[in-house]
Amino acid sequence: MINNNVKYIVFVALLYIAPLALINADYYDDLNRSITGYGWSQDGRFIASFIMSIMSFGTPLLPMAFIVKVISAAIVLISGYIIGACLFDGKKCQGAFFGLFALTSPFYIENLSYTYDSIPMSISILAGILPFLFFKGRAFTPVSLMGLIIVLGTYQASIVIYPIMVICMVFRLYLNERKPSALIHAILPFILMLVAYFIYSLIIHKLDVVPSRAGFLEVGSKTMEVIGWRIKSYEHMFTSLLSSRYLIPITLFIITLVSVSIYYIASSKEHGATDVLIMIACTLLIFSFMFIPNIILKSMFMTPRTMIAYPFAMLPPFILFSKIGGWYLKVVNVVFSLLILYSFMLINVYSRSIKENIETTNFIGDSIYRDISVVANGKFTVAIHGEIKISDRSSFLYREMPFLHYLSPIYAKQGSYWSNLALFRLSRVYPISYGKKQMPACNTAFVNRYGLYSIFKDGNNFDVFLSSKCINN
């Protein structure tokens, strides 16, 4: 029978995803998948393609944003429930609470936003956690191999969850047995990861799939320079999050964690200092796992969705204080709730920014298309120049919440290629060309639209300059 507290957690999770479900906005990847029918096999994610084609009863994929987000949220909560059984001494409600934190991670908002990608990403989390229900049993080896192959075939960035769970299981075993020999239990999972990767490589080779983003960073004279630059990129992402008012709840959480740890060391007759030191070491090690995908791979994608392991850095403190129990865990849970509350604020602001961006780009894109189609003869080319002018409300949101630049980038401000995609996301204009060009005099424009854009016509070729200084038509 499900605990009433778990039911409340499920209700809170549904409340959390409501803003995303209500705006029902598609990323450009989602639009292309639904229009052209392409899947994920080109990225080596053949299982993701298989799962989503089953859900749509074939291809191209059909729009089903609400149910996808509900299923994704349910899978993440189930993953947390399993973590409770594995790591929190059977406290499944505590596990579900951790699952809620994983779901409401500031970085995971982007994962949830994808109409078609969110389910494979959520399944990859579950597949990395499920084997640990059988950690000391005979089923651990086959379930691990199957789970790791599923992770690699759904969302490779989640592969770090498996070694993170190994670290957490070894930490828990140490707390229970007080034997350094607990480290021995990390050997088999490491071997299984290598075997699973070998099997996965054979499968994609058999399927004649060459992942477009495969390959590791080449070792050379500039390798350390590249790694340093990538770490700097992570620093910028975290700084933008902290500047988006995340500093207050995370600081309170850290202060509480330090205070409770000091009290535990002072009140414990033995093992207190050792337990806390190992907890800190495990936390730092897990935290570093977040950076691995974008550091070792040849192609870096500095996006929040690759930070899928961020919530797992909080597991070692929860393992320790779940073991101790009592008021220690209650105090940590109360402050932990502030991080979840912050994410509620963030996802609402994020949803608002998505709505603002879509409304602005759709308005300008439709206006440009109407102006051009009136005089165009058949197919025409459109060259986009400059950056779109966003609304005052959007400017305010991005100024106050810099992390939105990662979560909700304004594509029409990122160069001509993305401007074309943003402005003509629904209206297919073929062929589309783009490039840099000096804007001619305003009086030679075919259309000057209120300073939003100017259009210059040369036969069936049109140059559109965004945010032009030309006011009068």
Report what the structure shows.
Residues 428-432 have low confidence and may be disordered. Helix content is 62%, strand content 5%. By secondary structure, it is mainly alpha-helical. The chain has two domains: 4-324, no CATH class; 351-466, no CATH class. Strands 2-1-5-4-3 form a five-stranded mixed sheet. It has helices at residues 4-23, 28-36, 46-55, 65-87, 92-103, 108-113, 118-129, 140-154, 161-177, 187-206, 223-267, 272-289, 292-296, 315-324, 326-373, 392-400, 404-407, 416-423, and strands at residues 381-385, 432-434, 447-449, 453-458, 461-466. It is globular, with a radius of gyration of 25 Å.
Shape descriptor reads globular
Low-confidence stretches: 428-432
What structural category characterises the helix and strand content?
mainly alpha
Number of DSSP-assigned strands: 5
Largest sheet composition: 5 strands, mixed
How do the strands of the widest beta sheet line up side by side?
2-1-5-4-3
What fraction of the residues are assigned to beta strands by DSSP?
under 5%
Percent of residues in helices:
55-70%
Distance between the termini: 69 Å
Computed over alpha carbons, the radius of gyration is: 25 Å
Mean pLDDT score: 82
Oligomer: single chain
Number of domains: 2
- What is the chain-wise order of helices and strands? HHHHHHHHHHHHHHHEHHHEEEE
Number of helices: 18
Short recap of the structure:
The chain has 18 helices and five strands. The chain is mainly α and 473 residues long.
Give the helix/strand layout.
Layout (H helix, E strand, L loop, with lengths): L3 H20 L4 H9 L9 H10 L9 H23 L4 H12 L4 H6 L4 H12 L10 H15 L6 H17 L9 H20 L16 H45 L4 H18 L2 H5 L18 H10 L1 H48 L7 E5 L6 H9 L3 H4 L8 H8 L8 E3 L12 E3 L3 E6 L2 E6 L7
Parallel strand pairs: 1-2, 1-5
Antiparallel strand pairs: 3-4, 4-5
